[in-house]
Structure formats: C-alpha cells, structure tokens
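input
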Amino acid sequence: MEPTTTSSSRGGLDDADTGHDNGILMVAFHYPPIASSSGYLRTVYFSRYLGRHRWKPVVLTVHPRAYLSTNTANVALAGDVDVCRSFALDTARHLSWRKKYPLFLALPDRWVSWVLAAVFSGLRLIRKRKIRVIWTTFPIPTALLIGFVLKKLTGLPWVVDIRDVIVDDDYPELEQQRSAYSWLERRVIDRADAIIVTTPGAMEMYKERYPGVDDRLHWIANGFDEDVFESVERELRPRRREKEILLVHSGLLSPVDRNPTTFFEAVARLKKCGEISADRLKIMLRASGNDELYREEIREKQIADVVHLCDPVEYTQALGEMLQCDGLLLFQGSTCNHAVPAKIYEYFRCRKPVLAITDPVGNTAELLRTLDTGVVADCN
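output
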C-alpha cells in the first residue's frame, strides 16, 4: 500500500503543473538510522513515494546522537531522499545529573533542544529549496512545535501527520506534560491546513473533540512496501522444517499498551496441563524493548523453554523471519482501541495465520473482522 498525498481546501498537496518547484519540508524525529519500533517506516515511505508524485521531499530530522540506538542498515530504506540533520540532545542522557534533570528541560518531550536549530535549518531550507508545504509528524511533540513555528513565520501550508492522537484519555499521565501536549494539539487544530490520522477511531475522536475540523481531517492508513517484500522473498532460503510450530511477534511490547502478561499466563497453563511443550511449540518475541522485565515473568512462569526473547535485527531480516514462521502474534491493549499497529499490514502481506491479543471492541479487532482473517483473543 503506497502512502498517498492528501489535499486541503486551504491549500494542501494538490498537484502542481511542474515538478521543478514542488519542495516539501518533512519534519520528523523518527528517521533512519534510528533503531526503534517500526513507526519510522511511515515517514520513510511517504518521503520516498512523494518523490514519485512530482514532489521533492527534504527531511529535517535530528543528529543521530539524539537516538537511544541506531542501525545504519536501515538507512538504505530511505533511498536517495535529501536529509538535513540539525542539533538535538536527549535531556535524559545529555543534560541530566545522576539521571535527574529539571522537568522544564523535557517539555513537551526530552528532545525539546531540537527546536531552535530545527527552526533555523527549516527557514534556510524553505528559502533555498523552494519549499511549498511543511509536513510534520507525531509522536514526538517537539516536531509539531517546530512545524507550528515554521507555519507562523512563513505562512506556508502545514500538514500534520498525527497518526493516532496527541492527547488520549490516559496519556500523557504527568500533568505538566499533558498540559504541553494539549496546548500543542489546540495549535495543530487551529493552524494546520491538513490533519492526517491512521484509523477511523482517531478520526471520530477528533471530530467529537473539535467540531468543525472535518474538512481538514484525513485518514491514510499504514501499509507495506511491496518492493521490499519482493526483494526479501527473492533472497529467502527455504526454512528447514522443524517439528515444533513457530509463532513470532516482531516489535515493541510496551507494559502499558501491549503487555503480554495474560498471554504468558495462558502459555503457562497450557504447558502445565500438557497441551504444549518445547518440542511442539516455539514462541519468538523479537525486539520487545522490555526484555529484562519480561525475562523475569517468563522465568517465574517456567515457560522459558517455549517463549524466547530475541534481540533486534535489521528490518529486512525481520520481514524474512515473519515470512517463514507458522503464525504471527499481535498485541494491542485497551488503551489503544482507536489505534491499529502498523505491523498488522505487514502481517497481512506475509499471509500467515494471525493471533491477535487485543480488545474485541477496538479498531484492531474490527479490522481483522472486516477482512475475515485472524483469531482475536481478549487481552483483558
């Protein structure tokens, strides 16, 4: 599924007569070589595909020092997109003393130091690259702040790819941070020329919260890149058939939104009653992001011979693993009922059975029911 352009009655991404002056400045924190959840892929492919539709994207992002971890192998995914990196620090790592720091240095987030350098770089790029549209992407709110300032200074059309929602019922939890997020959300609603979300649940939430926003609100779902899948499939070697069934989850498992504890309990019960064993079932949790937390749970439940925590690998290698397993696991908690994990579209492309541990009333379960695929187990 290719990302597509969106338009706005207030002057958005309507096609121009010529491709010479169609510069688009894309302000995004998550961009290769960042090594994190797959969320960065959305911006990567937007930047690549917009280049095929008579636009000339320039990505404004942070210096790699701002990332917790990097993987240079992911840089190739961006192709020949023009990338500008500006100064940014992570307050928690670069400005803390004994792992403590004043809260104002992390509002709206830990990378707020990016603002000044990014605004300066953005103005320079707007002038030199004949930029016609400013595009900013969540979930790092500092990127939205940069877009808001650039919009005020230049008056250019501003597109905001919110994805899910900026402020949720229980997020952010910290009062000062929630106030900062709310202020930014109101600025986006007031000033953005087009607002993009990834699910119908997010659309409905914003329509209820801000009546009158309908004409600027657009739904562009996540997807997958067929070219990448085909290249991975060409390089795959046939998997040696093992006697056990292999189930894989690829990506972040956060304790709040994608907690696998109830799944671990179910596995432990099945093992105890003899329904499963290590020689009949292997479960791989790839790049959970919380291995230390879950390793202890797995040990306590005595399922370490069945459930295996695996280190992150390069993106195409992860796709190959997903293509060759027997089934795919999906976790999405009730806190994200209005959201759909981006990886679900890659799961669809892999054409493997899907076991979704999620809320039956959420958008994820609804999507699976609509497509009549996968098995939904109540995450609660």
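quick obs: The first helix runs from residue 40 to 50.
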